[in-house]
Amino acid sequence: MQATINGLSTHYEISGEGPWITLSHSLACSSEMWKPQVELLKKHFTVLCYDTRGHGKTEATKGPYTLEQLADDAHALLQHLKIDKTHWMGLSMGGMIGQVLAIRHPECLDKVIIADSTGKAPPNGVAMWGERAQLARDKGMAALVEPTLGRWFTEPFHSSHPQVLKEIGALIAATPVEGYASCCTAIGLIDNLEGIKKLHHKALILVGDQDFATPVAASEAIHHNWVGSKLVVIKDAAHLSNLEQEKTYNDSISQFLIG
């Protein structure tokens, strides 16, 4: 489905029934990355999947973007759909958007899952993300497929799950350059750790033990600053832990959301 949100043609899908849960994807992906989780969650929840500004089937407006802007897009979509309160699950950039949404609009969220994400950019964050944005602008998204897949999955998974890599690689390649580059700017400036100290939502922090894109230490920092949160480190997983260790990931979110 498409709706005009903040003047932006936004793609979203709704499935299942029950309390609302909203899923927010990583940079250079789309809501397609959540297929294994949607199949699980729609048995218990009304699942809202949406494509972030500049990704998937959502319009890529001229950037740069900010995380506040991306969080406000999500909030406006919730308002459009008349969703007063929703659980939230975001991975990587989706986790960053969830943090900002919780800080700016705490009343609209119930339980929050932040997976393979960070609350603060490293000292070289602006430069690193600026280089990736420039690479996309100079050579197109095809140049980013292999190095991104190399960060997102462990080597054994590369060998044993070629179809998953093919599908995720296609999502990376299809991401609009403007959307990718503009979100890189937003990510390079993330600084949420002070803000999340004020939050009181029940939160689950998940991270792959071999995630070098957003290392375990980054999730530990979120956990230490988010009062009452729970941290789960997933063995033998890199950045897209929801796909690489689907069962462990799904068991963790089920226990947190359903009990």
Strand content: 15-25%
Q: What structural class do the secondary elements suggest?
A: alpha/beta
Please name the fourth-level CATH homologous superfamily.
Alpha/Beta hydrolase fold, catalytic domain
**CATH topology, which one?**
Rossmann fold
SS field, number of helical segments: 12
Low-confidence segments, ≥5 residues, pLDDT <50?
none
Shape verdict: globular
Rg over CA atoms, rounded to whole Å, is: 17 Å
Domain module tally: 1
Mean pLDDT: 97
Mind summarizing the main beta sheet?
8 strands, mixed
From the N-terminal CA to the C-terminal CA, the straight-line distance is: 31 Å
Order of helices and strands: EEEHEHEHEHHHHHHEHEHH
Describe this structure in words.
With 259 residues, the protein is of the alpha/beta class. It has a single domain (2-257), classed as 3-Layer(aba) Sandwich (Rossmann fold). Helices cover 46% and strands 18% of the residues. The chain has twelve helices and eight strands. It has helices at 35-41, 67-80, 93-104, 125-139, 142-152, 155-160, 162-174, 177-188, 193-196, 216-225, 241-244, 246-257, and strands spanning 2-5, 8-16, 20-24, 46-50, 86-91, 109-115, 203-208, 230-234. An eight-stranded mixed beta sheet has the order 1-2-4-3-5-6-7-8, sandwiched between helices. Helix 2 (67-80) packs across helix 3 (93-104), helix 4 (125-139) runs antiparallel to helix 8 (177-188) and helix 5 crosses helix 7. The longest helix is centred in the middle third of the chain and has 15 residues, at 125-139. It is globular. 49% of the residues are buried. The mean pLDDT is 97.
